[in-house]
């Protein structure tokens, strides 16, 4: 993995002995007095893997365009079948909590970061796409004691092949509720797990007044089927929110990642499409 890009690191949160980081790429000529747009990247990896360094090149590309760009570290769940240890996520809700804390930190420290706190765009891939969309739709997942006086909601979101509904095949990613007793009443356990899945699904939290979203999905994606993207697009549009759907007939899962499965030229085209979307929403030019 190429991590030769210039970046700074800040700790945005300490939780259960973990110091969670933001990796920050600043544009050339940056000053704390600036009011620059912010582009926040959230990595994928099934909520159990991945690291913020995966998206440093993406951050660098947007810093070159004039934005302050950051990649978020969040706690990961343990491998399936293992109990969460201190410093690991107890479930997907922990991942959401950490990403909300990260946005709050960015907004709270706008003056130090030289950014416009009302131009925070969040981009996520796969599980990171789910977390990004959660930052537009779900306002009820905060850690105990979290200072909610500052908004954790994104101003714009780009979802690259992210999960938006856990009530179907993705329910397997949701831990069994009351695992010790579920054999005694499997129907009750199934219903509880279904409700938990809905609670973590952005699709089931869509309402009017939510920020603009760009959905990008490959029709060859067998990991997160494109029907997820279509169902969210229809629901978000029906609620009166601004949403755009871009489908790629030739791309599969995680198409926004460099050095993975997609040709670099295709990844760069996707990133250019994201830039054009943010440009159309006045995130660029920098001081517009």
Automatic annotation (TrEMBL):
Keywords: Hydrolase. Residues 34-234 form the BD-FAE-like domain. The keyword RNA-binding does not apply. GO terms for molecular function: triacylglycerol lipase activity. Belongs to the 'GDXG' lipolytic enzyme family. PANTHER family: AB HYDROLASE SUPERFAMILY PROTEIN C4A8.06C (PTHR48081), ACETYL-HYDROLASE LIPR-RELATED (PTHR48081:SF30). This is Alpha/beta hydrolase. It comes from Cohnella fermenti. The lineage of its organism: Bacteria, Bacillati, Bacillota, Bacilli, Bacillales.
């Amino acid at each position: 993995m190429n991590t030769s890009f210039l970046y700074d690191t800040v700790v945005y949160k300490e939780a259960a002995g973990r110091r969670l980081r933001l990796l920050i790429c600043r544009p050339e000529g940056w000053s704390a007095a600036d009011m620059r747009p912010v582009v926040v990247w959230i990595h994928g990896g099934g909520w159990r893997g991945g690291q913020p360094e995966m998206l440093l090149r993406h951050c660098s590309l947007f810093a070159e365009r004039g934005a302050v760009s950051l990649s978020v570290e969040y706690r990961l769940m343990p491998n399936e079948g293992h109990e969460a240890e201190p410093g690991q996520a107890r479930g997907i809700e922990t991942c959401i909590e950490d990403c909300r804390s990260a946005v709050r930190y960015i907004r709270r420290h706008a003056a130090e970061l030289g950014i416009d706190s009302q131009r925070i765009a969040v981009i996520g891939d796969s599980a990171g796409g789910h977390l990004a969309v959660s930052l537009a739709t779900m306002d009820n997942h905060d850690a105990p004691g979290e200072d909610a006086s500052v908004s954790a909601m994104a101003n714009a979101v780009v979802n690259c092949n992210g999960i938006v509904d856990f009530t179907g095949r993705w329910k397997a990613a949701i831990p069994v509720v009351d695992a010790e007793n579920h054999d005694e009443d499997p129907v009750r356990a199934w219903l509880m797990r279904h409700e938990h899945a809905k609670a973590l699904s952005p699709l089931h939290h869509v309402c009017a007044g939510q920020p603009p979203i760009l959905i990008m999905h490959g029709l060859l994606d067998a990991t997160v089927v494109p029907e997820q993207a279509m169902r969210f697009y229809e629901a978000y549009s029906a609620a009166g929110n601004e949403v755009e759907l871009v489908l790629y007939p030739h791309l599969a899962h995680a198409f926004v990642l460099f050095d993975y499965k997609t040709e670099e030229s295709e990844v760069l085209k996707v990133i250019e499409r994201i830039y054009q979307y943010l440009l159309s929403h006045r995130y660029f030019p920098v001081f517009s």
